[in-house]
Amino acid sequence: MTNPPTAQRGPVMLGSSDGVDIALHHSGGSGPSVIFCHATGFHGRTWDPITEALGDRYDCWAIDFRGHGDSTLPEGTPLVWTGMSHDLGVAVDHIAQSTGQAPSLAVGHSMGGAAIAMTELERPGTFSTVFLFEPILFPALTENMERRGSLSEGARRRRDVFESFDAAYERYASRPPLNNFDPRALRAYVDHGFRPIEGGVKLKCAGSTEADVFDNSDNRAYERLADIPTVTMIAVGGDDAGPATIGPDITERLPNGVFHVDESLSHFGPMEEPDLFADLIDRHLSSRSPS
Asked: Most C-beta atoms within 10 A of its C-beta, which of 87, 178, 256, 276?
């Protein structure tokens, strides 16, 4: 069985709400601190190709939300999305304590983008500027329930055990949508998203956990977007359904929203084109980051 590469630093484990312990990864770097927030079913280390590209300009941190990556999920813990914002708040406080300054910059993908927005609503002024790629911020009464149910059903059927890390990588690399990932991002997803078990490897984020996250994705932040003064870039890909379609509406509702679209990308854009994303993130954050 092929083992994943050893991380430069193991994650710091932090106590959050509901008895959850979250993992916070520090990839280092120089400059202002930035925290990266992943999508449903992923984990903080999926951002590795992007944080590596930005390490000479930013001090990069990445969180594993509850039930994802190396974070825990006590049995019976409800996966309502306010828990994700609690996790992020704990991570922000730890970074402030360890560096002497809270991260004023944040980057989020999908669920991670929603968690950043929810944190700003709970703790106004946490971030001075954020970059959100296709955040899950839908109107409560018009969210596509059929699509959400389809995602949940697919997650519950997901294969979670493979013979080795390499077997998992090869399987994903041959099938959509992960076959479109940059090899570095796919390798990071597999190497840090599975744990060794007897006779193989197993997904750290169980399909049932991912499904529960989808089932609880009505986070009610959309109706309060006008209460977020933070300078926010809403970036989307070219998908003709789902979170890409509501990006312009989200941007208009934000007092300081900025919109960007790249038609060549799907909802998994950060993993498809990490170098492009590193450049987009840098251009947005650097124009507004603290000196």
From this structure: 87
